[in-house]
Amino acid sequence: MWMGQSSVDFIMAGCKLLDEGNVQSFLDNTDIVLTDCDGVLWRGNQVIPGAQETIEKLRKLGKKVLFVTNNSTKTRAEYVTKCASLGFPASEDEIISSSYVTAHYLKYIVKYTGKVYTVGPQGLAQELNAVGIPNFGTGPDVAENWKFEDYTTLPLDPEVNCVVVGFDKDFSYVKLCRATAYLRDKGCLFVATNTDTGLPVNGRFIPGTGTIVAAVSEAAERRPDIICGKPHLPIFDTVLKLHNVDPKRCIMIGDRLNTDIELAHNCGLGAALLVLTGCATLEEVRQKQSSNSIADQRLVPNFYLPSLAQLGTLIDSLK
User: Fold this and answer.
1) What positions does UniProt annotate as the active site of this protein (predicted)?
2) Is 36 among the residues known to form the active site?
3) Where are the domains of the chain?
């Protein structure tokens, strides 16, 4: 199952503080810890205090830790390097990124055999290359001194029957025109790595992949056929394929409501834990919690903590 809502019955979450009274049950019911990265473990290249120690403590308890990210700019190998440099040693199998999931989906689920036009980063292109899917489009593609009609005669590769859109700092009007030309053919598959609208950085809001996907979607007058990243099912289906886990024995730790927390509910995970070191605030959670909308309730975590460091402290309290 790759799109839409999970068939798992939805139970409203309570958003309780994780504390000494409930942490033992929380840990006893957990085998697999899925954790977001930026905003939970680090911010940019700065480790969030206490995160390293908590991950180590979880592993010493026998919990398997998987790093689940919507960032499509890096390959899994590059994420292994970054994790190690910041004190979070990991193997490639423990990295679940939207770029890898996209390549995995096209190769093994769709069994796509043509070329891909990629509006996205090198990391995405390299993951596609790794599974043998030819692709092009990464990097700058701009036009200078073009007339309007020049955009209507852009050459198109007849072997392309799929457009993949990820984060692209080189996004341009030329790329938008190429993607639109391919996608106006309704038989052309439209895949998005993720649809995060953006994130706050140094007091400013930086547009994310979702803004680029929205531009292509509006121009092509169609929505993506599949969205691979959180909170959509393909990313957890990839976890299931790689690790054969029981969803009810998994928890998701994250800092965003509409990606991390919603993923936990969509996929029927055992619990969702929000940490307040990234995007979401407790005030936002309480607003969602007071809503009668099921869509809003899917954004409410089961538990919250000020930061991941407090989970490490709670683990120590059990000794």
Assistant:
1) 36 (nucleophile), 38 (proton donor)
2) yes
3) 16-70+231-317, 110-227
From the candidates 19, 38, 185, 260, which is the catalytic residue?
38
Is 38 annotated to bind ligand? yes
CATH for the stretch 110-227: 3.40.50.1000
Tens-digit pLDDT profile for residues 278-292: 999 999 999 999 999
User: Do residues 148 and 188 make contact, with C-beta atoms less than 8 angstroms apart?
Assistant: no
Burial 195-216 (b: 16+ CB within 10 A, else e): bbeebeeeeeeeebbbebbbbb
Identical fold, 16-70+231-317 and 110-227 = yes
pLDDT at position 5, please? Answer: 40
Is 260 a known active-site residue? no
- Position 200: which residue type? P
Residue 4 phi/psi, 5° resolution? 80, -165
pLDDT of residue 93: 96
Q: Which of 36, 168, 237, 260 is catalytic?
A: 36
Assign 169 to helix, strand or coil: coil
Class of 16-70+231-317 per CATH? alpha beta
**Cα–Cα distance between 107 and 130 in angstroms, integer?**
10
CA distance 149 to 44: 42
Predicted TM-score (pTM) of the model is: 0.93
Which ranges constitute the DSSP H helices of the chain? Answer: 23-28, 51-60, 76-85, 98-104, 122-130, 173-183, 209-220, 233-243, 262-266, 282-289, 294-297, 308-317
